[in-house]
Fold this protein.
Amino acid sequence: SNPPTHEGDTSTIDTELLQNSIFAATSEYIITGNELANQTITVSTHGMHILSRPMIICDTTRYERNSLLFAVGFVLRRNVDPRPYWPVLSNLSSTFRSMEV
Protein backbone atom coordinates (compact mmCIF):
# COMPACT_ATOMS: atom_id res chain seq x y z
CA SER A 1 0.00 0.00 0.00
CA ASN A 2 1.08 3.56 -0.61
CA PRO A 3 1.99 5.89 2.25
CA PRO A 4 -0.69 8.50 2.97
CA THR A 5 -0.64 11.88 1.31
CA HIS A 6 -2.01 15.15 2.60
CA GLU A 7 -4.59 17.14 0.66
CA GLY A 8 -2.84 19.44 -1.78
CA ASP A 9 0.48 17.64 -1.29
CA THR A 10 1.64 15.33 -4.04
CA SER A 11 4.63 13.97 -2.09
CA THR A 12 4.38 10.80 -0.06
CA ILE A 13 5.26 10.43 3.59
CA ASP A 14 7.30 7.56 4.95
CA THR A 15 5.25 7.13 8.12
CA GLU A 16 7.61 4.57 9.66
CA LEU A 17 10.56 6.92 9.24
CA LEU A 18 8.52 9.81 10.65
CA GLN A 19 7.40 7.75 13.65
CA ASN A 20 10.98 6.65 14.34
CA SER A 21 12.16 10.25 14.03
CA ILE A 22 9.51 11.51 16.45
CA PHE A 23 10.27 8.72 18.91
CA ALA A 24 14.02 9.40 18.70
CA ALA A 25 13.46 13.10 19.34
CA THR A 26 11.12 12.62 22.30
CA SER A 27 11.76 9.24 23.95
CA GLU A 28 14.03 10.57 26.70
CA TYR A 29 11.21 12.89 27.78
CA ILE A 30 8.50 10.24 27.57
CA ILE A 31 10.44 7.31 29.03
CA THR A 32 12.05 9.02 31.99
CA GLY A 33 13.73 7.98 35.17
CA ASN A 34 12.24 8.68 38.54
CA GLU A 35 13.79 12.18 38.64
CA LEU A 36 10.87 13.50 36.57
CA ALA A 37 8.16 11.49 38.32
CA ASN A 38 5.00 13.42 39.17
CA GLN A 39 5.92 16.22 36.75
CA THR A 40 3.95 17.15 33.65
CA ILE A 41 6.23 17.32 30.64
CA THR A 42 5.32 18.98 27.35
CA VAL A 43 7.53 18.48 24.29
CA SER A 44 6.61 20.38 21.12
CA THR A 45 8.11 18.94 17.96
CA HIS A 46 7.14 17.67 14.51
CA GLY A 47 3.95 19.74 14.46
CA MET A 48 2.59 18.29 17.67
CA HIS A 49 2.65 18.61 21.45
CA ILE A 50 3.50 15.46 23.36
CA LEU A 51 2.32 15.63 26.98
CA SER A 52 3.59 13.07 29.43
CA ARG A 53 3.33 12.55 33.17
CA PRO A 54 5.69 9.88 34.52
CA MET A 55 4.62 8.30 37.80
CA ILE A 56 6.45 6.08 40.26
CA ILE A 57 5.13 3.70 42.87
CA CYS A 58 7.75 2.52 45.35
CA ASP A 59 7.01 -0.81 47.02
CA THR A 60 9.88 -3.15 47.83
CA THR A 61 7.59 -6.10 48.55
CA ARG A 62 5.33 -5.84 45.53
CA TYR A 63 7.71 -5.07 42.67
CA GLU A 64 10.77 -7.06 41.69
CA ARG A 65 12.78 -3.87 41.11
CA ASN A 66 11.32 -2.13 44.18
CA SER A 67 9.18 0.27 42.17
CA LEU A 68 6.87 0.65 39.21
CA LEU A 69 7.53 3.52 36.83
CA PHE A 70 4.84 4.29 34.25
CA ALA A 71 3.74 7.28 32.20
CA VAL A 72 0.44 8.56 30.91
CA GLY A 73 0.39 10.89 27.94
CA PHE A 74 -1.46 12.70 25.20
CA VAL A 75 -0.44 13.73 21.70
CA LEU A 76 -2.03 16.95 20.44
CA ARG A 77 -1.76 18.90 17.22
CA ARG A 78 0.60 21.86 17.52
CA ASN A 79 -2.22 24.39 16.99
CA VAL A 80 -4.01 23.12 20.14
CA ASP A 81 -3.19 24.80 23.46
CA PRO A 82 -1.85 22.01 25.72
CA ARG A 83 -2.41 23.88 29.02
CA PRO A 84 -6.07 22.82 29.51
CA TYR A 85 -4.94 19.20 29.23
CA TRP A 86 -2.38 19.41 32.05
CA PRO A 87 -4.88 18.96 34.91
CA VAL A 88 -6.67 16.21 32.97
CA LEU A 89 -3.37 14.39 32.54
CA SER A 90 -2.54 14.88 36.21
CA ASN A 91 -5.92 13.51 37.33
CA LEU A 92 -5.76 10.57 34.94
CA SER A 93 -2.27 9.56 36.01
CA SER A 94 -3.25 9.89 39.70
CA THR A 95 -6.28 7.70 39.03
CA PHE A 96 -4.12 5.02 37.39
CA ARG A 97 -1.71 5.21 40.33
CA SER A 98 -4.59 4.77 42.80
CA MET A 99 -5.92 1.81 40.83
CA GLU A 100 -2.52 0.12 41.04
CA VAL A 101 -1.99 0.84 44.73
